[in-house]
Amino acid sequence: MASPPFTPCSPPNPFRSKRLIYRAVEDNEEDRKFLHDRLNDPAQQLLGTMVLPRPKTRGDAAQFLATQQARLLGVIICLPPPEKADIEPGLTGIAEEDELTMAHKFLYPEKPIPIGRLSLQHTMGAGTEHHRNAIMGISFIESARGKGYGRESINWALDWAFEIAGLHRVTLEVLSTNEVALGLYQSVGFVEEGRQREAIWQYRKWHDIVILGILEGEWLRLRGREE
């Protein structure tokens, strides 16, 4: 779908999508706890990272928070506050709320409810920004998975990357056994570009890292626009 036209006097909100809000990662107890819980999620450790699975400390969460803030884009993915959500009264849109989400509703009833995080960072490191390449990272709490929030967030991030940040290429890396994520990434326009064969060791087996990418021109065609 083509992006709607706008004038400088009435630009679209770059930090909203249809159902979600994208806010900065804050150096506060709320975000440190959220990221600490994310880092200790078994699915996140086994499917979303390449590091050795082990319990993460609050110090690990603080370090991860700092890296998210330093990236080209680092956001917390949120649902609107319950009273503003277009849903049944008292619900957040998540069928089975986890303990973290329920606690957030009780402690911060006026604030958006965090359900995930997303980042973009320059692929080649500092001093290579002129190549306009970035790699995306994304994860969600368990109760927010399988509801289309990943697809919505990735499409939002691609629009931000190519429309606002002026990137030319966005990549992703995913474990070959994560078939759900692979299918999602390919369905929104990412193309498999290669594999690091038998690069990951899990449960007495070797697995590939699949490298996917999408170019600016491919994104334009998906949005029904000419390059």
Automatic annotation (TrEMBL):
<dbReference type="InterPro" id="IPR000182">
    <property type="entry name" value="GNAT_dom"/>
</dbReference>
<dbReference type="InterPro" id="IPR016181">
    <property type="entry name" value="Acyl_CoA_acyltransferase"/>
</dbReference>
<feature type="domain" description="N-acetyltransferase">
    <location>
        <begin position="51"/>
        <end position="208"/>
    </location>
</feature>
<dbReference type="Pfam" id="PF00583">
    <property type="entry name" value="Acetyltransf_1"/>
</dbReference>
<protein>
    <submittedName>
        <fullName>Acyl-CoA N-acyltransferase</fullName>
    </submittedName>
</protein>
